[in-house]
Amino acid sequence: MTQHFTRRSALALAASTGLSAAFIGAGGAQAGTFENRKLVVIICRGAMDGLSVSPPVGDPNYAVLRGAIAIPPDQALKLDGTFGLHPKLAGLYAMIQSGQARIAPAVAIPQRIRSHFEAQDMLENGSGQLYGAATGWLNRTLQAVQPRRPIRALSIGAQEPLILHGPMQADSWSPGGRLDPTARISGILGDLYKDDALLGPALAAGLKTEGQASALNGGHAPGGGDVQAFAVTAAKFLRAPDGPSIAVLSLDGFDTHANQGAAQGQLANRLGVLDKVLTGLRDGMGDQWSKTVVVVATEFGRTARVNGTAGTDHGTASTVILAGGALARGGIVGDWPTLDQAKLFENRDLAPTLDVRQVFKGVLVEHMGVDGRALETVVFPRSADARPLRGLIA
Amino acid sequence: MTFSSTADLKAAVAATRFGLGARPGEIALARHDPHGWLQAQISPNGADQPQAGGGGVLAGTPESYQAFLAYRAAINAAGQDPMARKAARQPLDDALAQEVLARAWLAAVTPSPFRERWALFWGNHFTVSLMKGEDVGATAAAFEREAIRPHVFGRFADLLSASSRHPAMLMYLDQQNSIGPSSPAGLKRKNSGLNENLGREIMELHSLGVDAGYSQGDVTEFARALTGWSMGGPGAAVEQQGTFLYQQPYHEPGERRVFGKVYASGQERQAQAALDDFAASPHTARHIAHKLAVHFVADDPPPALIARLEAAYRSSDGDLAQVANALISAPEAWEPAAHKLKTPYEFLISSHRAAGTGPTDAHKDVLGPLGGFGHRPFAAPQPNGWSDAAADWAAPDAIIKRVTFAQGFANAHAPKAGGPAPVQVAQESLGARLAPATLTAVQRAESRPEAFAILLMSPEFQRR
User: Fold this and answer.
1) Taking CB atoms and an 8 Å limit, are A206 and B216 in contact across chains?
2) Parallel, antiparallel, or unpaired for β A77-78 and A318-323?
3) How many angstroms from the chain centroid is the CA of residue B365?
4) How far apart are CA B459 and CA B438, in angstroms?
5) Helix-, strand-, coil-residue percentages of chain B, each rounded to 5
6) What is the pLDDT of residues A31-54, one digit of tens each?
7) How far is B362 from chain A (nearest CA, A)?
8) B residues 170-229 lying closer than 8 A (beta carbon) to A
9) FRET pair for A235, CA 20 to 30 Å: which of A349, A361, B249, B290?
């Protein structure tokens, strides 16, 4: 975590950004093809247990390894001969059955790390190295697309995550703001902040979003509390004319070291919230759902075995969820390494068969029309070994 | 300001950067000797303790934990009846509200704001959070009062030990039921075993730091050493409930090798010996020095400042009074440019200090606004605590929320007609840090509340 390393890496990245500007305009997909495409990234923080999200109930070792916290086969929502879905993800299950969602059961970040904070940094900075960039890969996606097709991003929640940090100003919204952009104080503060690189742009972007939020909800700012209503409003932002193309939100509370539960319990409750967010986004997007992809990712998975306190500890691979009407119909994404003892990573974790960047890159290329070279140099530098996953988008 | 002297500027920095924002008269008081004003706040007795209002008493951990057990029994009896569930929760909610209010009141009115900021830093360093569950929520405030505040100007080793043994921390990081696989309990119960959560976070977050160079094997070995560190739970004798309890049958027998050192079999003392070594490690000195510099001075702090703090830690064997002294004596820490954006809690507290008021209603004055800001006390989302980086608190939406808060706060608390004039309020609050543009905007305001809201939202009030 030395500052020296961070600064040096950031410089390297800046250099590659500068180089890339020359060819971003050339080639690549035409702007028209990707008009109105929407991408939502949901980060489940705390290490979401993929083996409970999409339990491999047909894997002979699953029940043995998981003991009391295994999802019982008769309660899992059946996907195929190996996988089920957690019963609290009924809304997602309906999407999967109609070809609007898929799961990738064995995905991990590029390096093997078991610290939440380091792993989240790696998931979000996209440089392939720990603290390898001070900006997030979604911010750099805006940069990469900018010359051909200026698009914006929205962070939903009280804090902006690293994945959106960077030189491109992102909007942000959470329930309960309510400031009239035409109020006197808005202008006075705008003047006081005119030379303030942090507060000035933030206030201006915030006022703009406030105006939109008020208009979207008939003059009323939506309240907090109801997860589904929150997700529906977030979707309205994306759907609005000139709305952002990309949105990010985070869900907490997945660090289930003890009393994780199975079909019911602590993790089940969090998955219930996730399900409401997914169905809320779908409902809120309405006819734009067909142009939407939602990616749900976590920093790492959890140990294959139940631990001594009816929970699980920090592991490696986990499940990535893809949802949205723009997806191509298909089954499980990626290979299943199995839970065979010999196949476990360090004899404790589900081993990854996909680098999470492969999923992100596939979505950025096919869904958002990000230029292939910009993808390799600006958005995910040094990621040639993580080839974009093709065929995800219809 | 044309006529402001170095002493004026130093007094303003002392009250706003090291303190919690100036109350009326505070900058004038500090002006005589800003460094001495801060130094006098370093107390061998530790930080001040929040006091319940209205003659109430803040409950200790055992009592708070028993309140949690009573809640659990009541919620089970309540079934699905929403009224009964609400009634079951009420005592826990009331106790937390009382704690939060007492703590915010102390911060808003204390004449020793550096002492309080120092305590808040350590409370965040050793995060426990109600996000984990009601058991931690019931004891989180008592944790800060019992394990943190008494030790913040003592030896870091004592602070680390007090935190690691406190039931709130044991529950927060799942230590209480961690059982050595070869321990008597482990051999008897098949469905039991090691939980490495506390061990990992002690090494990564509390002491050595993530880049110290230890391995997964070191984490596991330390977790084995920690087995037995537990607490009196629901099944324990009443006088043991909510207290640290060493459970000998849980302890993994044998010697342990942690981060290059062998720890002989030693029951409870084995983990304590490792903790003491962690506290004495140069990695810890570096980690703590860096984190303090980030908190007090800049998100990307001057290396010379980190080096001073690190040297103070090492030469004093982790005496936090010496480290605090090094901080307030470091020239880099007094640089006039304010780099730190206030966190929402700091913003709320400093708004009260500027108005010369204090919060009186836990929900309306503290939990409500901080909930909106995503900064509810004792509710950090993850064990690394609240962020200290400006970018994490300066999203567009967050700034809008600050403006709306400032307007509401100013309507309620701006000094009324007959009280000090808006310009005087601004000068008392920011002293020599008050910028001419802000002064002009305050002078031109249409009303006292507008003038006060402008002060609160000025770039120099937002920073420290």
Assistant:
1) no
2) unpaired
3) 19
4) 8
5) 60, 5, 35
6) 457 888 999 999 999 899 999 999
7) 19
8) 173-174, 177-179, 181, 186, 191-197, 200, 204, 209-211, 216, 219
9) A361
